[in-house]
Write a structure and sequence with these properties.
This protein has three helices and six strands; from the N terminus they run βαββααβββ. It is of the alpha+beta class.
Length: 115
């Protein structure tokens, strides 16, 4: 089942450069880790560009759990919290359903097999 770590933050005034630097340093370490995320993306709120959502996608919960054991996910939180106005919110989520132009990519957490 696909698994996603979600981090939501509100970056402090004048702290976006420092926030971005801390996030990118963490990304390099995380993506180079054997159990690191398969994909990582950062979303910026169009109405409030200081609201950031960070998504780290893992193939399954076991990969995410192995990654967590190395404390890198906690390092992300500690690295960016000083740049944020309030506490950083973190959640772990399963991908319940995903569809692309070619059809379903994930249905109820499972990747469909060949048809």
């Amino acid at each position: 089942m696909s698994y996603v770590h979600v981090v939501e933050a509100r970056v402090g005034i004048g702290m976006m450069e420092q926030f971005t630097r801390a996030l990118q340093q963490w990304e390099r370490r995380a993506l180079g880790h054997p159990d690191g995320p398969d994909h990582h993306s950062v979303l910026v709120d169009r109405d409030d560009p200081r609201r950031i959502t960070v998504l780290s996608h893992f193939a399954d919960e076991e990969q995410a759990h192995s990654f967590d054991q190395g404390e890198l996910f906690a390092d992300l939180r500690s690295g960016i919290e000083g740049c944020c106005e309030a506490a950083v919110d973190t959640r772990r989520m399963d991908v319940f359903y995903a569809v692309g132009r070619g059809g379903a990519e994930t249905i109820f957490g499972e990747t469909p097999g060949p048809s």
